[in-house]
Amino acid sequence: MCSNNINLLDLFKDYQKILCKKYYYVIKFISYTLLKIMLLERNNEFSRLTNKYIRKIIEPVADSKVTHQKLIHSGLSNTNYLIHLDNGLNLILRIHKDVQAGIKEYNINKNLSGIPYIPKVIHFSPNSKNQQAYSIIEYCDGQPMMNLKIKDDVMLYSQLAHVLAEISQFKYMQCGMLDSNLTVKPIETKTSGHHPFVNYMLDCLNDGNLKSRLSSTMRKAVLQFVYNNENLLDCLANEPFQLVHGDFKKENILVNKRENGGHRLVAIIDWEYARADLLYSDIATLFRGQYLKPSSELYIAFERALVDKNINLANNWFKISKYIDLINLLSFLCSSKNRPNFYHSILIFITHTMHYFDYEC
C-alpha cells in the first residue's frame, strides 16, 4: 500500500511522449481499479433490514407482495435494496444516510419529472423515532457504465449530452450546493483576486488535509498549473449557473446493450450531490480519465448533441472542463475522512489531468 504522501508526478516526466497512448490506457485501468477498491471505504455501514420491515414499508405503497429482496453492495453512503414483487415488477428501496439529503433528492426528482432517464421516486418517507428516511424508487434495468467496455460510443454519449441539456434549464443566480429546499448555499473562499473557481482551488491547496496527502513538489506543480491556465475561465464570465448532477460519473450512469451493437442509456441515478454550477462540471466528471482531440468523432458528436438542444459551449470546452474538474479533485483531498484508496485514485486523476492537458497523441 502506498503512503498517504505520494508524488505521482515523477511517473510521467520522461516518458509522456514515448508512451503517450500506451500509458494513457495503463493509467485509465489503474484509475478504474482504484475506484472499485475504494468502495471498501464506505462512510458508514450498510443498513441491514429485516424481511418483515421491508415488507411493512414496501407492500402498502406497491400494492403487491414482496417475494425477494437483495442488498446492493455499492455506493459510499446510502443503502439500496433491489425489491422483487409478485406482480413481476421490481423497485429500489433507498435508505438515506441523512434525512436532509433524502428530502433534497426527492425535491430534485419532482423538479425533473418528465425528463427522460431520471428514475421516478414513487414514495419518500422522512425519518422518525422508529425508522430511517427512505425512498421507494422506480427500478431501471441496466448496468453501471463503468462495468462495461465502452469506448467512443457516439450514440450513448449523444444521449448523455441531451440529458445534461435538459437539466440545464433550471437556472440559478450563483454557484453553490443546494439545501433540502433546493436553495443555493454560496461557496465562500478565503482567497480573493481571481476567478471564484480559482480562488476555491487556491483555498484547497492551502488546506492542511490536502498538504498531508500531496508532496510539496506535487503541490507546487498543481499550483503552477492552476495559475498558468486560469485564463481559460475568462470566456465563462457571462455563463449562467444551472442545475448539475454533481456526481456524473460512470458508476451513476446505467446502460444496456443495443441489439445492433453499442449501448443505450437507461437511467441517471444518485442525485444527492446535485448543485448549482456550470455545465462544464458534469462534462468534466463524465470524461474524467478520458482525453479527446477536437477532430475525434466522439468530440464532434457530443458537441453537436448539445447544440441540437440549443447549448453552445466555448470553443475549447473540453480543456475548460478538465481544468474545472480540478475543483472537485482538490476538494476531495481536503476531507478529514480516512480513505487512502480513494485519495490515491484522486492523485492519479490530478496527475493525469496535468500531463494530458495538451493531449496530442
Largest sheet: 5 strands, antiparallel
Count the beta strands: 13
Q: Give me the Rg, rounded.
A: 21 Å
Class from secondary-structure proportions: alpha+beta
Q: Give the termini distance in whole angstroms.
A: 32 Å
List strands and helices in order, with pairings.
Blueprint: H1 20-37, H2 51-62, E1 66-72, E2 79-85, E3 90-95, H3 99-111, E4 121-125, E5 134-138, E6 143-144, H4 154-167, E7 171-172, E8 176-178, E9 184-186, H5 196-205, H6 208-213, H7 216-228, E10 241-244, E11 253-257, E12 263-268, E13 275-277, H8 279-286, H9 297-308, H10 317-332, H11 340-355
Antiparallel strand pairs: 1-2, 2-3, 3-5, 4-5, 6-11, 7-10, 8-9, 8-13, 10-13, 11-12
How would you summarize this macromolecular structure in one to three sentences?
The chain is an alpha+beta fold and 361 residues long. It has eleven helices and 13 strands.
